[in-house]
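Why Immunity protein 52 domain-containing protein? Reviewers of the renewal asked for a concrete example.
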Amino acid sequence: MSHELDLQFRTPPDRRLDIEDHLSMIRRLIEILGAEDALLGESAWYLSGDTKDDSYRDQLFGDQGPTAAALAVLKREQEGKEVVKSFAIWNGQLENEKGASIAYYFDRTDGSASGLRLTLGAKPSTSRLGAWPTVARVLSETVKIWQPLIATIDKRNYSGVFLDRPRAGWMLYLPTILTDQQVPEARALVSVLNEKNKQLGTIVVSVVDGPFSGSDPEHVRVAHAIEVRLVDQDLLPRYADL
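Here is what the prediction returned.
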């Protein structure tokens, strides 16, 4: 079973990011992940390829940042991509419970938000990053890097109430200050603060007694109730509005 961290973000119009900038942000995330699991550390990641051999060819990071080989491949691959630039990386582990991957897309010209999806394989009924406070901390640190429009952590087998809106799943980040009175169904609310101690938004947590499962009726009931509550208050945006 896998948990996925999914976020969508927009780059300010006055700030043009190049491929090195995006890799720098990904490296910060990987440093956070590596502190929890050595198989997610920066020395573990490779550019995904079309074959198994290709996928072990280019290590993404060295001691000084992106390797010259990986950077050259990424720059070459982005040439001619007019609508959206994208790439994928993985941690070189073939066993599902040890594997991880990141899909990243950016510089969109179709009006859609850019995004990142981190997939973490794990043993059944477990969380790769441990208990919910650690998972929430990783999500919080990720928010500080990208300052996304929305971010979620859930399971692939979880279906939300609204097809046109993000799912609450295990955790949902909104760039809004939320209170217990606004989301009484939440099992925890975590404030995300920037370096100046200003609140960027709130993480809504649906399950605190173990990892979230899309096949657990109680987990699904709580997540659905959170989604309905947020929509009733016009707090859960449509994908089309992101």
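The radius of gyration is 18 Å. This is the kind of structural detail the renewal will allow us to pursue systematically.
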